[in-house]
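Exercise: predict the fold of this chain.
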Amino acid sequence: MNHSSAVRHLKHADPKLAAVIERVGPCRFEPRAEGTHFEAVARAIVFQQLSGKAAGTIHKRFHALYGDRAPEPRELLDTLDDDLRAVGLSRQKLGYLRDLAHRVHSGDVPLERIESLGDEEVIAALSRIKGVGRWTAQMFLMFRLGRPDVLPELDLGVQKGIQRAYRKRALPTPKDVLRIGAPWAPWRSVASWYLWRSLENGDGQGG
């Protein structure tokens, strides 16, 4: 991903975002290339609605069932419920993981060729999996496939970042996020990254 082109475009397109970029500094947005797509979606399911530390512990125990590695879909389907529950997975997440494994193993969700699909096609395919909604699919697009123009309009961090940068009294709605972020195309993933980092920096100054 060409960070310099992205930053140049974003600064030119939006003065308020330009101020955020100046405060945050160089862009370090990079997708995660290690592991498989199946592993990435399974990890997202395990980490849902848990603190990073608790989720990390469960995820490590989950991999320990398979010799400290991610399972293949068939292996996960063959694992007993009791063994999966013993590592700390809720009944609901166990169901989500089984649905993921079944859909990938059957070819219903074509993870092996998902790079060839457009952004909305990827979202539609992943959203067929129980427990995987639009937000999780957008995170996959950004951080797994490295797609440059994803704007997760449902993300609270993106909403808060816009609220601060634009000095808004209330959180912007998803529709507001898409409207405000329209000029950032085709680099809305990078803009989102900057909005997240601006919150880490305690940036509440506005542009």
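Check your answer against the key: The chain has two domains: 3-30+150-200, 37-143.
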